[in-house]
Fold each of these.
Amino acid sequence: MKTLFVLFSVLFFAEVSLAQMDENWIKQAAVDRLLRYVKIDTQSKEEVDRVPSTEKQFDLARILLKELQDIGLKDARLDEEYCYVYATLPSNLSEEEAAKVPVIGFIAHVDASPSVSDANVNPIIHKNYQGGDIVLPNDTTQVITVKNNPNLLNNIGSDIITTDGTTLLAADDKAGIAEIMTAVEYLLKHPQIKHGTIKIAFTPDEEVGHGPKYFDVKGWGAKYAYTIDGGQRGELSDETFNANTAIVTFNGKNTHPGYAKGIMVNSLYAASYFISLFPENMKPETTSGREGYLHPYDLTGNEEQTRLKILIRDFEMSGMEAKAKILENMKEKTLGEFPKVKIDLNITESYRNMNSILSKYSEVTKFAEEAMKQADVRPVNLPIRGGTDGSKLTFMGLPTPNIFAGEENPHGKQEWVSDKSMVKAVETIVNLSNIWAEKDAGK
Ligand SMILES: [Zn+2]
């Protein structure tokens, strides 16, 4: 009996996941949402010791709360203090089956980048794009060129959504919110697509690095999650840099320059010599892909003492150690040239590659790839040359890779997104919800 039931389940689920989704409905629903959300200014602010960094993020959070309640997610709630929106889409499996399926979650952020204003966004839809550069109407010096955006050519026949050239679009990450919301609505309208318990969260302050700070990981209750906040169609990231910060302090000896002969030891010369030793092929401006870097980014000082801050980045821990060794050698060489200067090198940990944890739960990434393939999207695993909210959440006990939302040229006036990418992101979320159920319910 049990075997028969399992067999039936597998056949049933497989058939559903192969079914064609209603792309027109998805497109309309997702794009309409994006156009509504981008009208709301949600810019976050750097160096504010509070979450959310700006009160206006609540404006969108309240709309999202109401919308979640309106589409039927009864437990939707807003954290009135820290501006997180949480909700649950209950499983449509039998109780016995649902208990076997891990609770998964989808996350997007409400804030927009502090880099360019997102007030009074005037979204422009370039219908049925046929190739060529896109000139933005209210500032014609802003041109989205095919040369800098070769991915435009993968969107021939799609509608391309841009700004009028004077603001951000903030498709980063309002496209992600629109896609999650639309996927939830789609799942509610199509109960034949089976899924376990699905959790939804919209977070503040991602752009200023504080998104996970007050995230209620435990209360939310997902076992695995996905941020929907990546670029091109197919993008999937389960890897970030390892990151350390080094501080090098050069201690000299100051005295009145008029009477300094034989006494003064000027730390500035030692610091400047040290900086000249950074290897050329290991700088942010000379590396890409999986290469790490050493990056001096802040220098303050005088004759008595100079302090240099350095970023150390690498995907591998062995690369981190090698880079620390290089700094150590640079220190020794500088001491050789400036024997009277005292040099301290101090390295502290910033964050770690989330892959060190995610690799233990390989199905989290594998199922996302499968969900994309079912939506006719070729997955491209792209290591992130930085940290993400997902990497912090992963280390807070919630393994969270990142999936494309379709946002391109984020943080600038030439931001754009295609309706095709949005549809494919929605389909990926729907498929992924189903795949977790399909793989685990029958076990
Ligand atoms: Zn983002």
Note: Residues 109, 172-173, 206, 229 surround zinc ion (CB under 6 Å).
Amino acid sequence: MASSHRGAPARIPPSVTLAPEIAARFQLFLDHLPNGSRTPIHIFTDSDADGLPAAALLVRALQAAGYPNTTAEVRLKHESAWNPHVLDRLRSRKPEALIFADLGSRPDPLLPGIPTLLLDHHFPTGTPPEATLLTSYGTSEDQRAIPTTGLLAYWCALAIAPDEAPTWLWLAAISLLSDLGDKAPFPELALAKKQFGGGALRDATSLLNAPRRTATGDASAALQLLLLADSPKDLLSGSHPQLATLQAAKAEVADALALARKLPPRFSTKVREELGADLVAIRMDTPTQVHPLVAQQWRARFPKSVIFGVNTGFHPGWVHFSGRAPASVDLIAFLRAHRPPEADSRYGNGHDQAAGGALPTTVWNRFAADLGFGPEMQVAEA
Ligand SMILES: [Mn+2]
């Protein structure tokens, strides 16, 4: 389905020409830094295995290209780039330029007066005033053919550090495996598998995605590891102490997932006509972010339905839900049509076939009833 009806930016040609365009606009951003290559550049990135390698690529490339004052930090649990406390914290770092990676794009201001670049591939609802958005969203009808943030960062790295960047191709490959899977149609992935080993790339991706799903949700060790390791095999070798943190995170998430897998599915047929699919929900209560994994796992059992993993324990007072939809369904459009008036920017984000959100408990109860779910999906208010 075309994305232009949503007010997305004008369609840019596919990735063959997207790479030079992204690279040129990245270079233009650097050319206008207030203190040239001495400018303190701070990167704020998503905590998943797309955002993490994107930041690692940008830090490595900027430092190699002679921008020594480049730093990066990872979004913590429940944080978005637009939270006031996040913006206060970023301001306290005294950056003179900011890069936001893999965190979406909205029209709301970030830190006005500081040159700001957003690198992303999610549906943008707008661009912050004066900021530059480099997005791959809308460049393909096929969701799997939309470049990840990590791949965009790799193209930026190639532009400013052409000699070193090919040795970092594995970082781009991890981002592709993480967000788009093993069949992502990018030559960068095929080449990286040959050079670095498909198994090691997959194992690294799985470990890197664990910390953000834990109860604390802190993926800082994962970013450190990506800045230290020379390859996925080196990352997995045990020669860097951060590996143990990632392994412990993976075990924590596996335990939570094993518990959630025993929970029963609940059904609604109320929106069948509108959606062209039935709804299935699995309700869990855990501080870990396993609700998207649970939704994903039930897809095989109900391939024609929209599956919601619903978590009442992720953030007290809130209900988080993550939906997975068959290819025929535009889940973003469905969520927009059923958007409760109280919903904020935490609601309705993602991709056409993978979207979800968070609602305060009272609002969730009305939303769940509106979608046709019975008392088993009503949550007691604290
Ligand atoms: Mn991503």
Note: The chain has two domains: 4-252, 265-377.
